[in-house]
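Quick one: structure tokens for this chain, please?
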Amino acid sequence: MRSVLVVFAHPHLESSRINRAMLQAAGTVPHVTVRDLYECYPDFYVDVAQEQALLRNHDVVVLQHPLFWYSCPALMK
């Protein structure tokens, strides 16, 4: 089975029904790791080495985020 990393970024998760439901569902699937960037880095200081290691250790990467002005949230960028 391939390992999947879901990199999730939503600055206002509490107000999102769809993204919150998708995030909760993804967390219940075997071989899926969910990484909530706004939970991990509320101060926006990203541990680059740790994030790179996560990317290397997974076969598939999924970027999940809402669209803001046809782009992703700031922390995802």
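The chain has one domain: 4-64.
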